[in-house]
Amino acid sequence: MSRVYRLFRSAPAYPLLLPGMVWLAIFFFVPMYYLLDMSLRTGNLLDGFNQVYRFANYSDAIRENKEQFIRSIIYAASATALAFCISYPLAYVIAFRGGRYKNFLLMLVIAPFFTNYLIRTLAWETILADHGIVTSTLRSLGVLTATDKLGFTSGQRLLATPLAVVTGITYNYLPFMTLPLYVSLEKIDKRLLEAALDLYANRPRAFMRVTLPLSLPGIFAGTLLTFIPAIGDYINAYLLGSTQTTMIGNVIQSKFLTFNDYPSAAALSFTLMAGILVFVIIYARILGTEDLA
Amino acid sequence: MTNEPRGSRADIDALAFARGALTRRDFMRRVGLAGGSLAAANLLAACGGSVGGASTQNPGSSAAAVKYPHTVSPDWNWSNWTLYIDEKNHRHPSIDMFDAKYKTHTNYIEDINDNEEFFGKFQATLQAGQDIGRDMVTLTDWMAGKWVQFGYVEPLEWDILPNVKSNLLPTYHGRSIDPNDEFLVPWQSGLTGIGYNSELTGRDLTTVSDLWDPKFKGKVSLLTEMRDTFGLVMLNLGIDPSKCTTADAQKAHDAIKPYVDNGQIRAFYGNDYSNHLANGDLTAAMVWSGDMVQLLPDNPHLKFVVPDEGCMLWTDNMMIPKHAKNPYNAHLWMNYYYQPNIAALVEDWVNYICPVNGAAEVLKAGDPSIGLAGDPKVADNPLIFPPKSTLDKAHVFKSLSADEETQFNTLFADLTGTA
Amino acid sequence: MAAGTQVTQATGAQQDTARPRKAPSRFWAKVRYQLLNVFAGLAFLYLLVPIAVVILFSFNDPPGRFNFTWHKFSTAAWQHPFATPGIENAVVLSLKIAFLSTIIATILGTLMALALARYSFRGRSVTNFVIFLPMATPEIVMGSSLLTLFISVSFNRGFTTILIAHIMFNISYVVVTVKARIYGFDRRMEEAAMDLYANELTTFRKITLPLIMPGVLAAALLAFALSIDDFVITQFNAGPDITFPLFIYGAARTGVPVQVNVIGSMIFLIAIGLMAVNILYQNYRGKRDAIAMSGAVRKAQLAEAA
Prior knowledge:
- The complex is a heterotrimer.
- By secondary structure, chain A is mainly alpha-helical.
- Chain A contains 15 helices and 2 strands.
- In chain B, strands 1, 2, 3, 4, 5, 6, 7, 8, 9, 10 and 11 form an 11-stranded mixed beta sheet that branches.
- In chain B, helix 3 links the parallel strand 1 and strand 2.
- At the A-B interface, helix 14 of A face helix 1, helix 4, strand 7 and helix 17 of B.
């Protein structure tokens, strides 16, 4: 290694980092501080919000919105599970059987990303309408009677039910699941699979022993990338749901943007953030992925 | 329109007092904020604002009360509710004619979908004493009253509003939300009642109780406007919404709650109920009269009914937000709209209740000079120009105190699932 | 992963049925094989049907103001995509924000990526964490905390605040995308250049920049796409301004005009066109690197690696 290059390497990286880091500091981290600060205040816009370190804002906000918190967790978890069930076979087929169409198939997966999020969700509103083909087909097949009994739907309809909301969330975040799965499956050495088949002589066992463990980083990334945005989502519940399907995002949004109840909205938002961080850490421990920064 | 002055005399007094008190508090707050480089400018603005507000004791009569520079700006911004002005080939003829006449460009923004939401979007800015980028906004009376009360509205210069002076229907003068006619000019009024699809119901609906018919389970919606939903349900319970208390709101809440819990009520909607009524996702809903009139041509089975127990009446008002940059343009528009033929042109499309005297006559006869064909069907429509029998059943929700509003909203939020 | 490190080198793709094996039944193996393909087909259907609906309804001619039920075919909206009042301003604002935020975020992000990929320095892992965090935060938390900041310091919301927010959430994606590209190229070229020219700036301009350019471009495209699509963070920080997604949100209350579908379809078709060109180009160059195709893929990969 040349001396000049050594010099080059040791040249300070900080000036390069500075502008971006300052931006993130001011507009990502400082706002978090303000969020925390606001969450402990009381008051209203007219008289101002006074800092009184009222920690009860948290217990109040959580108590009043327990239902929405629980619902958000259930919906986000269901959507993540559904997305996984859809994505894994999909990613598997693209990675192992895609051949020269791999790129094209991947493009199809990403394609929905390129229509606006709201337009996509509105399209679901059209698809799931009470008098639409999907609903009437499922109704005549008796599927809706079954899902009504399970509490996924109600009143022989899809729109404005939990199922519609979860369908929308699953759809909107599906690529976040498929792509990491694809990336980790793609990396697997095909000869390793061959060896595994020789060793275990049984396809399902070979899959369980080799393919699945090797795709674990993809599963980890995919579930997180789906679950995190899903739990804060409010558009799907707003457009496809009903009063019985409001999520914590809907509450935060309306408290912040409609009722200007900043302290309790901030408390909810901060709780959500903290909850997710704790969840990510525990999840990382369980899945044993220590690579997480 | 028999829009009786709402609220008692005491109510009005309290409001006037509150306005004075708030102006002072507002001022103090700004002084408190002063410290940054913006301080001087803010302070000046604050002084100017309170002086302007205080000097208009006799609006409409006193000539030199308020005075804005009489220069037309090349551009001005007006926020209105969606689908709330005449439309032809994706243009708004009334605005186009206005722009041509005054050599200006009206930036017509349809960004009001909900009074609370719109207020929420701008309150922080208004409270900070800054321009919200709108020269005119159109809000429902209770919300307009709130803006007036908080000092968020610029006073009107009546000298340049001769048409409003002569053509505003008398019942609109001296309303409790603006007792001295200092700030508000009505845009449209409307009724809140019940809309339903007669093909799906198979029968006529006559009262709010009909919404609780188990046959319509999951096919019923109420309104996101707390006053409309609580108002109609209170009437159904025999409570007068113009005199209601928090206990009454609790009763209304308790009457609705079981139907939220059992899924009878599908959702609480703003204007968006019309989508769902039109495509059959809803069978019956609490609705606004004008929307139903507009929906009828596409959906002959849709019907609007004033419930037997009565309906709600409200008014949307044009007003100039504090520190607006182009108040003169807004005045020009108000005055322009209060010509009966322009009001008729708007009315022919909007189909709510018109506050401009003489609009019905023009609408019946038509006015070729502005491309308006005679439309007796609209002019004779009892929902657009309602007869006395309808208006006798119409009620106005009372002005809530800040505490009441919080309590009412909390009860309502429990219903909409965003408590 | 311990098992992963045992994989020494990857060779070309081989079908997993390349060799016949002793199976309970050939027939069932075949069914199982096809079943997976059918399932993948259904998944694609699920992915693409809504898009088909969006495009189909852009050719609708609804009788009233609701574009929810199919009425009859018309190209009227395509001929006049900006006919709905307000939509043009919204699209123009979205484009402005997207351009500016893309340029600024790409510059800031690329510099950070260079620092991270090139230098070993104290605080490196902290920096990585700082960059990772915005990608792991729900939009509603980012949007609401920024809003709280602007309210607390009485900063008027509008164009500036939208721009600030978009640059903020774009930076991380840019860093991650560009970094992956820098790791991918041969540093000896730079060393050679340094020996020849002995000037950092010249080396950067003549060697480094051209080499990382595809990564920078991919990052810029991703940033642009993220910006033009963003709703949540924008809603919290837009104040009186209306971007295209905010316009749709408002219109959703009263019936979305056909023009919304038209513009949505246009953006979709342009993006797909660009991607298709990119794929063809890569295939032409014999590069079958799927990762390079799209920043979205790369983001996923990096999030995994992070």
